[in-house]
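Incident review: delayed structure delivery

Summary: a single-chain prediction request sat in the queue longer than the usual turnaround. Root cause was a stuck worker, restarted by the on-call engineer. No data loss occurred. The affected request and its eventual output are reproduced below so the record is complete for anyone auditing the incident later.

Affected input:
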Amino acid sequence: MAAHIKPLVLHAHGTSPNPAKIAIALEALHIPFEVKQWDFSDDPKSGVKGTEYLKINENGRVPAIEDPNTGVVSWESGACMNYVRRVYDNGNAIGPSGDSAQDLVDFEKWEYFLLSTLGPMTGQTNWFKHYNSQKNEDALQRYTAQTYRCYNVLEGQLKKTGGESILPSRVTAVDYHFEPWVRMYSFAGLSLDNYPMIKKWLELMATREEVQEGYIKIQGKK
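Output delivered after worker restart:
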């Protein structure tokens, strides 16, 4: 199928976790794509807050995808991931690990937990650790504690699979959602000492071809 597909365009920034998850999913499905890099500025031509990019994504964030095969433009990583699955994952290679209503709900609840909670809490931890113009230890401690709370939830889930995958049976797009955010633990000043299942899962994910190739595409280097 991929031989007849025009390459999708994935709009990204090399250090941002959200485009990486889409690149990993596209690699897993063997869908051709090209990466267009943007910077975090309001430059009209190169910045995510510039006029050129805002025509693609009114919210001025990465990722966004443009699909020349369908004419569809999507942004927000959850919407991008689910678009890719609906259109290109005809064999359910990265979707829910079963066919029951519970399997679908389990897929969605872990996806939304990352999108609404673990990802944003990690992002705030990073912000107050590295980027806030004035030190704010109260905010940093709050978001650090909340990120660790999310790790506790994830650790409990991974115990059910021995650290092999977040959902039972196999790696899915849920794992792709989590991997770029959890991989940032050290940058966020966090430790995995109390999370052996997360550590095992993260190490296993790093060995997967789609993960390795996804980062090569996003970062633009071998």
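Verification: The radius of gyration is 17 Å.
Action items: add queue-age alerting; document worker restart procedure.
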